[in-house]
Structure formats: structure tokens, C-alpha cells
Write a structure and sequence with these properties.
Layout (H helix, E strand, L loop, with lengths): L1 H18 L1 E5 L5 E3 H14 L2 E11 L2 E10 L4 H4 L28 E7 L4 H5 L1 H11 L3 E7 L3 H7 L8 E3 L3 H7 L7 E5 L5 E6 L6 H10 L2
Helix pairs in contact: 5-8
Length: 218
């Protein structure tokens, strides 16, 4: 009889836990229901910047509260996975509003820098990027891609020297197509438009490596 009662008691506990509603407590104290949390979790993971996990579980009457832990990741790591694949220049538009041909960058090695006029680190690395270009001149494609409008970029560059071919108005392809949400970022392509390396943040510490990679790709 004791064994039967024990089994029934355990079954009762199991059923009670299964019947409980799951809630998730975010680091800022916000409580989310399971559906809302899963949607938010998927959005955060999609950015590639955050690892979402459960740190503790609190059982209270008819609910289970799971305390969520967020580990912030390097926002450039996901782009390094693209090394060895073709850069999709055809997702971007030229000054006439037409998409670039997929072969636009082929035939030369390329350095592509992603930047914005509102990004201080981007502006800080202009001298380094200009210096790299001076070493190679026309033997390498030097391209800068920005979310800013052509008018804003033109006015901005009157006061700041950044001697690269500018591809402007690129908010949609950067955020929605390539998922680039951190700046500055620089990528190196070989003559066939294949990504050789990805550099997140200031190029300064990697300048010598970038130059060597470009030399080997001539």
C-alpha cells in the first residue's frame, strides 16, 4: 500500500509539473510567457550576437519560472563562417539603381569595407584603409559599402578623406541579406570573388596581415 501511495504521489507531482505554465525571467527582470520568449529568443539568435540559456528554474505553485542568462558573442564570428564562399556583390545597387553584376569584382583581388558616417571607429580607421590602397593602387578593387545615402556620404567625404569606391543606400542588403549588424568590418576577396578573410572592428591591428593577403592574391 505504501508503494502504491508513493507511486501515485510521484505521478501527481509529475502531472502537476506538466500542468504548470512556463515563464521566463529576463536579465532585466522582465517576465515573458513561453510563446513570447521563444519568439524573442529566435530573434536574438538570428542576429548571431547572443547565446540564450536557462541559468535557474524556480517552481511556484502552478508556474515554473526559468531565469534566463544571455552570453553576448562576437558579432563578427558568424561572418567568418563565410570564408571560402562567394561574396554576393549582386545584392547591392550602383548609382543608377541597378544591381551589380555578379562578376563585377572578379579579375582582381578586393578589399571591401563596411562603414557608416555615424560610426566613430569606422572614421578612425580611414587613414589605415587609405594607406593600404596607396600600396596597391589600381591592382586591387577597393570598395566601401554603407547604409548611408549618397547625398550624406558625398557631404561627409568633403571633410573626411576615404578614397574608396562608395556603394551607398545599402541598409536592406546589409541587415536583411548579409545580416551585418556591427561595424566596421572588412573582408578580403580573391580574384574570383571568394572570401579569403573577415576582419571585425578596427583594421589597425591586422593591417600587415591584410597587406600580405592582398599581395598573395595579385
Amino acid at each position: 500500500m505504501i508503494k502504491i501511495k508513493t507511486i501515485l504521489f510521484l505521478l501527481f507531482i509529475s502531472n502537476s509539473i506538466l500542468a504548470q505554465t512556463n515563464f521566463f525571467k529576463m536579465p532585466d527582470g522582465t517576465i515573458l510567457d513561453e510563446k513570447t520568449f521563444n519568439r524573442k529568443k529566435n530573434d536574438m539568435i538570428e542576429t548571431g550576437n547572443i547565446n540564450v540559456g536557462v541559468e535557474a528554474v524556480i517552481i511556484r505553485n502552478d508556474s515554473i519560472i526559468k531565469e534566463v542568462k544571455l552570453d553576448y558573442l562576437n558579432p563578427f564570428t558568424k561572418h567568418k563562417k563565410k570564408i571560402g564562399t562567394a561574396f554576393e556583390i549582386q545584392k547591392f545597387k550602383n548609382k543608377e539603381g541597378k544591381n551589380y553584376d555578379e562578376n563585377y569584382l572578379k579579375g582582381k583581388a578586393s578589399l571591401i569595407n563596411f562603414w557608416s558616417i555615424n560610426c566613430e571607429p569606422c572614421i578612425k580607421e580611414f587613414p589605415d584603409l587609405n594607406r593600404i590602397k596607396q600600396q596597391f593602387n589600381n591592382s586591387v578593387n577597393f570598395v566601401a559599402i554603407t547604409v548611408d545615402s549618397s547625398v550624406d556620404v558625398e557631404n561627409f567625404l568633403k571633410k573626411h578623406k576615404f578614397d574608396y569606391d562608395q556603394i551607398t543606400d545599402s541598409l536592406f542588403p546589409l541587415l536583411n541579406e548579409l545580416k551585418i549588424n556591427a561595424l566596421p568590418m572588412t573582408i578580403i576577396l580573391d580574384k574570383n570573388g571568394i572570401i579569403l578573410n573577415v576582419y571585425g572592428g578596427l583594421i589597425t591591428d591586422n593591417e600587415n596581415e591584410v597587406i600580405e593577403t592582398l599581395k598573395n592574391s595579385l
